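Q: Predict the bound structure with guanosine-5'-diphosphate-alpha-D-mannose.
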Amino acid sequence: MTKRALVTGVTGQDGAYLSQLLLEKGYEVYGVVRRSSHFGVADHRLRWLGVDKDVRILDGNLSDLSSLIRNVEQAKPDEVYNLAAQSFVASSWQQPILTGNITGVGVTNVLEAVRIAAPGARFYQASSSEMYGKIQEAAQSETTPFYPRSPYAVAKLYGHWITVNYRESFGLHASSGILFNHESPLRGIEFVTRKVTDGVARIKRGLQSELRLGNIDAKRDWGHAKDYVRAMWLMLQQDVADDYVVATGLTTTVRDMCKIAFEHVGLSIDDHLVIDPAFFRPAEVDVLLGNPAKAKAKLGWEPLISLDQMIREMVDADLARIAG
Ligand code: GDD
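A: Predicted complex:
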């Protein structure tokens, strides 16, 4: 029997890589796409991976429960992956209510649609290491207390706990992946890695001279999205639903991540980097470092792509984009 998956946020970075993985495994993949006036840009990531023709697009919105029920009825999924969110932390101070409605309460809408229309389906919630915020332990695991530091993180925490609650209340096979930062050439330009790799490529090609960033002392545990979507899938293959940290176990400053990008094209960070107060946040998450021991032991998951490899891949992709 062909398995069927429903993916919200299918046009995002993770949605594209997950769709590719599921299609390779023989799934029928249905993707929920929110109607937008920017016609034609919605599927550029799916196109980049060559899977745009294979994903069946459904019209739905996390704020509209009836649309989600129809999506679930149509897809008849064995597995539902909730990847949709307002996912840019900095914007969450500008749009805190929308962030709460979509990134937080939107999760309940998807869970309700599953509970009503496909209660036997397995559910994945995209939780986030941002929930650790002001960290309460040097290396964060599934048992580390949370301390969110942005409206985004507060909303993600709601999504995380409502997933746990639906598992405990209704016996849904609902798992939550607490994913640390994960990047790729398909990352949105507003996130720091892609902003850096795009900026470095432009500087290399003479299209700009400086790269303006905010807090470059922040430290993140960065992995590759392609590795991380494999962990999502593995979670839903387990007999028992559970929560898992997905991380590399290494942390690096924004500055050192930047250096990798500049050095890859033979440029020096000191000649081009400008610190701009406009990119500092009202409250910062200074450092994140994940402990992926449980995912390694129970899922047999390992990240395969290093930060160095990933940043070089991203710079090369941005150089090619500019040339193209
Ligand atoms: N975006 C951005 N732009 N970040 C900057 C800049 C800049 O110009 N300068 C410094 N930074 C710092 C931010 O202050 C933050 O400490 C760090 O770079 C990473 O920022 P982002 O790449 O925007 O990611 P994030 O850590 O805030 O959130 C991402 O990871 C989460 C998982 O922990 C997002 O993908 C979230 O959706 C995800 O949940």
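A: The first helix runs from residue 13 to 24.
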